[in-house]
């Protein structure tokens, strides 16, 4: 039964799942932990009018940028525009809807969606444009703004390892938004670097239980790009 979760490639895993106008959560932070093969599958599918929930929208020529460049994204729910010039240009030209969130608020909205919590209160954004149109209440002498959960028709995530049951292990900073997003989609598809045999993962090391994961693919290769490489001159060796 578990082997039915494993699909040969992104196209097969996305088959029967996609529809125009759907909402998709996509893991990743900058260029770390992006489900790049599943994003490529979305590009080739030509599904359109997408609402994408993701920390940012890839980088020039890579990741979610490709969907943006192909006109497939209608709205972004993000916390960072960054150096993505196309993202900024489309938004400023009125060709892309944007719901900008403080980064911690975005993470908590996603976590709340996976936990079945429809709303929560936070100090972040009180007295700013972030709070406009949202209820604000006082608790113990401080003001808090009410934020609502985020959920998706589909979550696509990137993990390091999976077993046939869909239990996932992430590696270091590539973990980022992926675990929360895996819980908040009606359907969750994970792409991984390695699929290990059943029983090979230490249960104490599993970050996402397989009950949240519907389909798995093993990516053939990962470029693991560095968005900004920062270096310093090597110090001269002492005599």
Indicate the topology:
Layout: H1 10-14, E1 23-26, H2 36-45, E2 50-53, H3 65-69, E3 73-78, H4 85-92, E4 97-100, H5 103-115, E5 119-122, E6 136-139, E7 142-148, E8 152-162, E9 168-169, H6 178-183, E10 185-195, E11 215-218
Parallel strand pairs: 1-2, 1-8, 2-3, 3-4, 8-10, 10-11
Antiparallel strand pairs: 5-7, 6-7, 8-9
What report would you give on this structure?
- By secondary structure, the protein is of the alpha/beta class.
- It has one domain (2-120, 149-218): Glutaconate Coenzyme A-transferase (3-Layer(aba) Sandwich).
- Helix content is 20%, strand content 26%.
- It has 6 helices and 11 strands.
- The protein has helices at 10-14, 36-45, 65-69, 85-92, 103-115, 178-183; strands at residues 23-26, 50-53, 73-78, 97-100, 119-122, 136-139, 142-148, 152-162, 168-169, 185-195, 215-218.
- Strands 1, 2, 3, 4, 8, 9, 10 and 11 form an 8-stranded mixed beta sheet that branches. A 3-stranded antiparallel beta sheet has the order 5-7-6.
- A hairpin with a 5-residue loop joins β8 (152-162) and β9 (168-169).
- The longest helix is centred in the middle third of the chain and has 13 residues, at 103-115.
- The radius of gyration is 19 Å and the shape is globular.
- The N and C termini lie far apart (65 Å).
- The model has no long low-confidence stretch (mean pLDDT 94).
């Amino acid at each position: 039964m578990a082997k039915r979760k494993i699909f040969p490639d992104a196209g097969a895993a996305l088959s029967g799942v996609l529809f125009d106008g759907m909402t998709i959560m996509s893991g990743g932070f900058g260029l770390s932990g992006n489900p790049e093969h599943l994003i490529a599958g979305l590009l080739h599918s030509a599904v359109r009018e997408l609402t994408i929930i993701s920390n940012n929208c890839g980088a020039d020529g890579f990741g979610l940028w490709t969907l943006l460049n192909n006109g497939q994204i209608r709205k972004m729910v993000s916390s960072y525009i960054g150096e993505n010039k196309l993202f900024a240009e489309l938004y400023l030209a009125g060709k892309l809807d944007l719901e900008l969130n403080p980064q911690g608020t975005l993470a908590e909205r996603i976590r709340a969606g996976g936990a079945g919590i429809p709303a929560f209160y936070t100090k972040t954004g009180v007295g700013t444009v972030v709070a406009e149109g949202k209820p604000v209440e006082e608790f113990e002498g401080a003001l808090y703004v009410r934020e609502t959960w985020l959920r998706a028709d589909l979550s696509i995530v990137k993990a390091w390892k999976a077993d046939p049951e869909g239990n996932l292990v992430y590696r270091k900073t590539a973990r980022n938004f992926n675990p929360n997003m895996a819980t908040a989609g009606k359907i969750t598809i994970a792409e991984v670097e390695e699929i290990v045999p059943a029983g090979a993962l230490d249960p104490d090391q599993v970050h996402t239980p397989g009950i949240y994961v519907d389909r798995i693919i093993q990516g053939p290769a990962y470029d693991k790009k560095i968005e900004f490489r920062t270096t310093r001159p090597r110090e001269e060796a002492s005599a």
